[in-house]
Structures
1.
Amino acid sequence: MAIVIETKDLTRVYKTYQKPEGFLNSLRGFVNRKYDSKTALNKTTLQIESGQIIGLVGANGAGKTTLLKMLSGLVTPTSGDALVLGYRPWERKNEFLRQISILLGQKNQLWWDISPMDSYALLARIYDLDPSAARKRVEYLASMLQCTHVLHTQLRRLSLGERMKMEIIGALLHEPRVLFLDEPTIGLDIVAQQTIREFLEQYVKEKGPTVILTSHYMDDIAKLAHKLLLISKGSIVYQGTVPDFVAKANTELAESEEVDFEDVIRRFLETESRVR
Amino acid sequence: MKTSFVVFLRRNLAFAKLAIVSNLEYRLNYFVDAVLQPTITTGIEMLLWFAVFAGAATTEIAGFGREYYLSYALWGAFFARICTSWMYESRMIQEIDTGSINSLLTRPMSYYEYYFSQLMGYKLITTLVSMLVPVIVILIFDLPTHFKRLPLAFALEFYYLILVHSISFVVASSAFYLNKVHSFTGAKNLALWFFTGELFPLDLIPEPLRSTLIALPFSAGVYVPVGYITGRLEVSSVWQSFISITIAIVIVNSIGAVIWRKGLKVYAGTGA
């Protein structure tokens, strides 16, 4: 399989304003500010093959979203390099942007004030798609996600689950070769989570895009991901398959103990929060 | 095979339509914005000039009679609304501040064109709707207006909008560094209230400030187009304005490109 994502020593350092509490410190900070540097991603080197779903797992603030944002071109690295489909993402070339899609579960990508169908018509123009082909594709994806009935309702009037389905259709309309999904099931009920999970599984089987998926629901990762990337304090600490990861964890435990994927991740995150 | 220019045009036409479609979703808000607000502004400004002439007990100021000033106030209020960008500049700033810009940065289009076409679409439809107000008042009060000059005046106004949007782009791009920059919009629009000639005709200001203000591109917002259609100015002033706007567009966009490029480097992809 071809390598579609490649990074070398990818690093991002954020500079943040540090303000001690209180009114006087606000006044002091008005003229003299103190900044702190935080390494969100530290010298990350990885390779990802095409057609796979990669589960990116880590505690809050571990660097998952920063990595995703760098690979999709939203954030420029402080140092290091990366190639996605042969393009440097942060140069944001149109040829590159036409082949990727990012879905941030906590942000709307579609237009709030208009119906999803109007949004898709606009996206068809942005990606230079044939309007009637785009419409057929919307109908097909909507029927897969069982949400045809809300296509003409203003986005702001939809429930969270319906909105997420609309966002997924929008993200897939131009058939991206690389898809970045940042917590696509966040806040959804079990049924909606399940629908989206099954949809993604079927879609990847059919179309074969490379998917980078972050989620705090380990079921998403365990059921969908071909490979796992475990990230801790800005560094990748594990790259491999989910079964290998669980097997490795079990060999490190006492003979009488056996854990599943969710247990291993929970233990890992608990350790993380203690040493943070 | 479609040329990239055709694709570009279609895409931008779609952005312009988006502005119209989203504004028409909220009918009452749009009615107040496109009809009620210009009516109130026009009423206030005309009343002001009635009061000035009544108080001064004179028939002329700087060589022009009351009807000329009423006509200036009427068209001035109308043109000032076209050449001011509050809504889209605020949205641009907010998108960078809150990180909503993420969904635009990852699509094959530019932030500049996306908002430029929306601004143009919105201004075009609002101009057509709100033009009813000055036209009705002009006909009722028989105020001096060269209707034949309107197309060139509108051409200048919409050309000036490119500069307006370019300035908005510079202001919004500074949000990459400073986050909250809404006060910049307020200060800038307050200054332009004076510099465009909305407050009063710029030729009432004494020299040497008068020539300087008229030579600046901002006079193309209100003073030049309104002066032209009300008969205060001739066509040569319009051509001069086209030239000064062009120079300003080049300068402002050069600054904008630098701020934007550097801003993206420090941008942390806020939110999510």
2.
Amino acid sequence: MKNRGILLEEIQVEGKAQVLEQIREAVEAKEIRYQPSLIQMVLGHIKYLSLPALGGQIACLFLIFGMCIYFERSQAQLMIWLGTGSVLAACLGVFLMLELCRSSSFHMVELEQSCYFNVKQLWCVKMIIFGCLDLLILTVLIAGVSKNVSCGMFAVILYFLVPFVISSGLQFLVFTIFRRGKREYLQMSAAVFISVLSLFPLSEPKLYTVACLGFWVLALIIGAGLLTGEIILLYRTLCSENEIYTVEL
Amino acid sequence: MPELRLEHIGKSYRGLPAVTEMEYVFQRGIYGLLGANGAGKTTLLRMIVGVLQPDFGRILCNQQDISHMGGEYRRMLGYLPQEFGYYPNFTIHRYMKYLAELKAVPPELAEERIDETLNKVGLEHQKRQRMKNLSGGMIRRVGIAQALLNDPDILVLDEPTAGLDPRERIRFRNFVSELGRERIVILSSHIVSDIEYIADEILLMRAGKQVESGSLPQVCRKMQGKVWECLESMESARRLNQQFVVSNMKNMEEGNVCVRLLSDRKPVEHAVMAEPGLEDVFLYHMMQ
């Protein structure tokens, strides 16, 4: 079959300016819809975190560095390493809770809930930031302590994770039970309570032996279960657009 | 242009109805929500912005249920809550920047929008001041400015003039009038004159129900023949005050009092019919 080619319509030169004008108008009328990624959200939000919460978290990191250097030089005993590390690990969770409490303490939740990034997303971002910092601090703590004690890294991980998860779980519990007003003091009391509690095993050094590792694993499972359950409950409540966290009725 | 439709929405708190069977369609313009304290205005506005969920009924924005629209609906919103919160250590600029981020205002437009909105509320020179150092009126103006940051299609203002001085209120009225030309503006107040001056449509609420709606002439027309004025002696004025709903008493010369009252029938022989105003409508419905 003979190729007859493609016939193009004749271009109307005089209509070109008119068409270009229509395109320009359509472009101008188009709404700019900015949709930041999760990374942009996280990075963008860091500068708005409260100084006591973020500063406290960073101070903890330096404290742990200092503690490791000091104890290493003074050749501290196992119990001193574990006792100090447990108290610090128990205190870590409080900074996130202080940050989460901030919105309701300053009556910002209702306004934040009406924004494009609502309270659910905002709290997720805060949890990501503080969760990453907690992870970093625990890594430094575990690495610093485990090379100076004889009980091994696995045991050190357990000894520090238990006060951390139980303290964080308890603080989430306080956060979900007491939804209104200034909860910061309650959060701090919960952290202090668990910190003191985490010192009790020191009075019974046998608890830090291989024979008792099963007890620590069990405590970790219970603590992790409590913490996970609390986070899931909080997330589900916010996802269901429930107003209990957002409006002071 | 968006259309916001309330379909038989209702909300109760611990078994007590706060809003009942509310049905209304909002289109471009300014809507004034008028009612006494506890009439359900704030609950209704909270449902409109999606902070509260209706127990029954639904709210549609351009035929879409807002509970399914999520962020896309919130992107269209500007909201000033009645209890307007702020972080006291933030400067005005930082506070606006923070909210611009939450409202997903493009970063390259944010500064321009902040300057523009602060300029509208007359706070362009105070933007480096900390929120904790601002007066009540200035905080309210920041609240109004933040509601406009994302150039919203639906602007919801709960008691926007509370705490503003008369000059600020006039300024506010003027620029809200401008805003209503291209979006839905819903504002609530129990200050009748604010609504009277700027609202295109008035919704009167009592005990969670819509008792009256329409333009100012429409709602006033319905009160025709129910507003009376008469000149009385002090003693007689006191008696009328006990018998009828008196909207105003003004001392006149020679110890007489000009009484303006609401009544379905002529209260006294020499009373003359008066032109109803929104205050009369408000008072009439509140006293029912």
3.
Amino acid sequence: MRTFPLSIGRSLIWCLALLMGCTDSYLPEALESPPNYLVVDGFLNAQGVTTVRLSRTYAVDSKAVAPAELRANAFIEDEAGARLGLREGVAGAYVSAPLVLDPAKKYRLRVLTQAGQDYASEFVPVKLTPPIDAVAWRATPEGVDVLVDTHDDQNASQYYRWDYEETWEINPPYRPNVEYVNGQMRDIVVPYPTICWGSALSTAIQIDKTTALSQDVVSGFRVRRLARTSERLTSRYSVLVQQHALTKEEYAYWELLRKNTESLGSLFDPQPAQLTGNVRCLSAPDQLALGFVSAHSCTEKRLFIARQELPQEWDVRTGYEGCLPPDTVYIDRPNPPIPNPVVILYGAFNPLSGNLPIEPVYGPGPVLQGYTAKSRDCIDCRTRGTTVRPTFW
Amino acid sequence: MKHVYPVLLMLFFTLQCFISTAQQSEKAVSGNFTQLPFEQFARQLESQTTLRFYFEPSVVDSLFITLQVQNQPVRSVLEQVLQNTPFRFAIDDENRVFITSGVTINPNLPGEFYQPKAGTPLAQADEAAATGPVARSRYVTASEFKVYEIGTASNSTRATLAGHIRAQKSGEPVIGASIYSEATSIGASTDQFGYFSLTLPTGRHDLKIRGVGIKNTRRQVVLLGNGKLEVEVEEDIVTLKEVVIEAEKDKNVSGMQMGLEKLDIKTMRQVPTAFGETDVLRVVMTLPGVKTVGEGSTGLNVRGGATDQNLILFNDATIYNPSHLFGFFSAFNPDILQGVELYKSAIPAKYGGRLSSVLDITTREGNKKKFSGSGGIGPLTSRLTLEGPLAKDKSAFIISGRASYSDWILKQLSDKNFKQSAAGFYDVTGHISHEINDKNSVYATGYFSTDRFRLASDTTYRYTNQAASVKWRHTFNNQLYGVLTGTYSHYDYSITSIKNETTASELAYAINQGGLKADFSFFPNSRHTVDFGGSSQLYRIAPGSFIPRGEASLIRPNVLPEEKALESALYLSDRFDITPRFSLSVGLRYSLFQALGPREVYVYAPGESRTEATIIDTVQHASNKVLAQYHGPEYRLSARYSLNDNSSVKASYTRTRQYIHQLTNTASVSPADVWKLSDGNIRPQIGDQVSVGYYRNFKGNTIEVSVETYYKTLRDFVDYKSGATLVLNRHIETDIINAQGQAYGVEFFLKKLTGKLNGWVGYTYSRSLVQVNAATTSDMINGGRYYPTNFDKPHDVTMVGNYRFSRRFSTSLNATYSTGRPITLPLAKYYVANSLRVYYSDRNAYRVPDYMRLDFAFNIEGGHKVKKLAHSSWTLGIYNVTGRRNPYSIYFKAVNGQIKGYQLAVFGAPIPSITYNFKF
């Protein structure tokens, strides 16, 4: 009987260890040899340049970027067999000349890969997207909502998708007047830019339909919500909203794609669904292709928001909060041993260190004590955007 | 003198007159007997001659016969047999053989000694004399040999005999015991109150009584007219021998029911479990046709049905979440349980409301004779039960509690996360029964269980089950009795997060169900048993609320409006024994469901996938106004045909309707699942099942084999669109789709519940498929084709074995294998619309690795002295002996753009446990 409490205690620890369970990595055979399907991303622009990106599916645990489909022969084809060619651009992008597609005809995308497979999307009607009536913004307690209004008097559109490209100004907090070049500290020759422009494409799928309404009107659909602390609102923000009219089938595709990929695999995640699109392989039906190719025109509208227009009490962040205050690299300490400024500076600013000097720090009197410094990301705004002023800015 | 006394009693009470034809004792007998108990030996001699043996079974139970005889006179055989034993025998001129210990008697009495007087109320007078302070066995034996005269003489040729079978020691009713007359092949079994009603030809009958957990006995009656017979039987204290065979004999081959699994608490105790505590639901899962998605889950999938399609009744009150601690324990304290019945097909008409099965859990009534208690100490929980009479023989109480001390253990651990975690539960069950008079009894049960767990000091989960039932049973006459039952069930959960003051919040859900039902049983004659009744229950659901906690919280309250509905049903069924070989049970249940206001109901554009964007109207319904109504018949048919004494064929057809749906889009049941009532946008589920089975017993009913096959269709059960939001959703119908299902399978079952080696082996081949072929293509799953459900595990083999070395030591082994459950895999990733997307396989197209587990337990019983202060037993167990890491959950996580798969094994190592049980 003396051992009884001990046994119980031991069992308890066992149990607790067990309640946490054991996690092992799981790689079923199906994942070891992932399918290599063609992925078609893009639409046939009824009034303008068509850009279609061709890539391949790849292993879920890969760190690489999606493998592009190179040297394919891609063209737009109508039901009579007339072809409009696409030219291969960079990294699997295939681009057409500016085109106008005939709304009375049906078109499809045809892709002949270098490996000899023949892919085609289904023939789709040409939809003409109505213009965007307005892109507006509204300040809410949570932040800024970007809203879009549109309508179609013909009641022909009904299904809509929007994407957008955001651009915003970046003002780095530092203006360095020294630079470290070839192991030497010197006055700066080419100053770092004081303004950059960041940009991003929408990643979320924004769709809406008006089938439940008596008129084909979209009013105040929120395409973007920016948190009130967003760094994109620091000084000036712009968003270009692009509108696509969809067919019912394409709308269903995007709706499913959105639900499918907006969450991934925790213990309690919902069931995903298999989704392909409207592209088939004509030469080998078991070779799947992913993506939905439709034919429509695209309309767009731009919106600007300046910091001054936002509520004053908002504590908008600059995105450089983590960069303040600057660090200091001292060249006169520790002492002893007698410090070697060359070694210290090399250690602090060699190209691999990722740090840049900002300005000299002088001690009592004119004695050079060292330099203030910060990482490149805090100083060179080209890590966050481009110095090329956008044409619309 | 001790051993002679029973013989004398027997002589007094035996009225039976044999007519002597010849001196049977000189008749020759043959046989080859090896280690045969004397009782069976005597029966064999009786079968070869017209001799009847009289002896005290408890006296001869140590006597085993090993003998080989060929055409030898009975007298000489008996002389050989009893030679060198203290036993003597005597044969009288009426061919009666008396076996006595130590003393030889002279069986020939003076002729006038024994003259029965017609019409004397022998039964009452002698019963009084026989009870009292005399030894127990003496009383029982006396009742066996006494002849009870029932009723008053009348002209009718048939009469009804009714009464109760109760345990002699505790006064509790014996459920499911059978009482039958072999000569007329008429029998009945006792219901949940221990009540039976038997219509027999008037005259003399020898009634045999058999049942689980009781010793076989018999009563001799002279039936003159309608009357009562109260039977007290001895409990079988230590061994499961005999008793179970006899009961199962009835059930397996000659019983009407098919697809019924009955387990008593003694059988359940033998099955090893993870934490050493007897677990009703775990044992149920070892039965063929019952599956579960994972081992940490108590969600049952019965014959391809979803986890919400099981009606779990605890003394008639519905239990919504039958689990404790993430499902590692079932919510029922084993000490208070009498047994469980699982109906997989041929669900009786009196049950309804769920599609797949009924799990009827009953508690014991408590000891009506003396105060006693029992309990146990296990690695994670302890439990204590007290019971006793409130008024002797009339009323009793039983109260049982169980609590975990996992909280305390977590506090002892050095890990900071553990210290701030908490996990604990407790449950309390109380039951009172009172017999007002011969015709009226009342019963009341209360049940409360609660769970609370907190993970690393942030989020606290808590859930509570409450159930109560009150029953009044009234016997109108021998042929008719009724039970009026009021029930109340409550389930609620809350998830509280208080770590961040500004976002401190509580998410809560609650369901309340109150019901009233009346059930009647009518026994017009021995060939018909009619059950009828009606029920009505009111549901009130608080479907979800999200409210701030504390002053500083900025959470905006979001409270979903209450849902209300009334579900009512009427039923009638008749069990008709057309011939002794062929019987039929025909039942009809008609159910009506009314969803009640006040409610706001959305109307959706027809032909469109339901989304917020397709809402075309909102209709406001006033309080208590019926906003949606569904009704329909539920057919319950079954038939049995006995091919011979050892085998039978049974068939059944069952339709069920279900109006309340559990919403869970995770594979296993989680405490945050909600129950949703049918309404204008959510149709009720309807299930149809056809089942055929063949049943055969071998080796004198010690081995029981059955094969059952079934085909089942399920209409409109709830499945979910991809990415469904189930919590705090004001338009839940936009995320739900009505799915169609089909399930089929074959179940092989072999059971041996006697002998040193006992247990069962079951193999099931089954499929469970679902189809979502909605009108709108975007809602279709897998292109509208049938696909496996989450719990489709085609092959399943389970073995539960028990080997008894002696009465004190036994071992149990539990082995289970099943196909891995289906899973949807992310097969590849790709880049579309500026974002990384995942290409998934068809839903449930792949399977997780197969499931395999072996458990072992060693039981040590204390000494078997009947009179002892306390009985105790130890159970040492190892769960998952091989330490196989069966995946409980498989999940994928995106880490730096890589998607990696992980499998989580809950019990990834052997788990030893030790439990101490006691009884006083």
